[in-house]
Amino acid sequence: MATLPIGLTIASSDSGGGAGIQADLKAMQATGIFATSVLVASTAQNTHTVSDVHAFPLTHITAQLDAIAEDLFPDAVKTGMLFSREIVELVAAKVEEHGFHPLVVDPVMISKSGHTLLQDEAITAVKERLLPLATLVTPNAHEAARLADMEHVTTMAEAKEAARRIYALGPAAVLVKGGHLKDGDEAVDVLFDGDVFRVFTAERIDTPHTHGTGCTYASAIAAHLAQNAELPAAVEAAKAYVTDAIRDGLDLGQGHGPTDHFYFLDSRRPTPATD
User: Fold this and answer.
1) How far apart are CA 172 and CA 167, in angstroms?
2) So what's the architecture of 6-249 in CATH?
3) Active-site residue set
4) Residue 8: how many CB atoms within 10 A of its CB?
5) What is the pTM (predicted TM-score) of this model?
6) How high is the pLDDT of residue 181?
């Protein structure tokens, strides 16, 4: 009987299916592992807006985490939108208690529509409690600026400075995602492990259908780590995967459509009718 490495995502749901827990599960499964989940909140969300967020009771989040640790212990863990200080502190405590490792922290702060997804007090808790436990933290340029206390991160030099500052907060490595950087024609990400900067490049794809790319990228990295890949190789493979998923993005809804997590399954597409 076949077995697979196990991944765990600790995050919130996206009712539109393009980001959050839904994207995490799809990306992990597509990248070759069995995906489990702990839901900390649910959002009322579609391709163009987040209209509501409902956080779950801490006792229920605790029960989920303990249940996974008891029976489906993960080979890698990824966190996403955690919403509140209380949830961040609980998740950090449980990561320590159960020894969850490696840990990829995606510090989701704000939606594409501008809805706040991480309260101000929670950002402080992420910096003080969660980042010191992280194998990797994966902020985009806007999140990196907030974590690094910088006015903005728009150039490669600023991305490297942000990575240095975030590294000083305690994670083992920092990946500043450069999809928003303005000084190049490529999507450039910077990985810093305290000693060496590594740069990963891919084509910058001109498409509005990028909903869930951060969740997808971080989850794919965690999936490769669960399969014993070294961190630089995990980042490189995950970047190739998310680039292809963006390239084949889905024109769904009235806003930012989702990436196609299963772009490689051509057989699922309808066969054109012939005369």
Assistant:
1) 7
2) 3-Layer(aba) Sandwich (3.40)
3) 177, 210, 212-215
4) 30
5) 0.93
6) 66
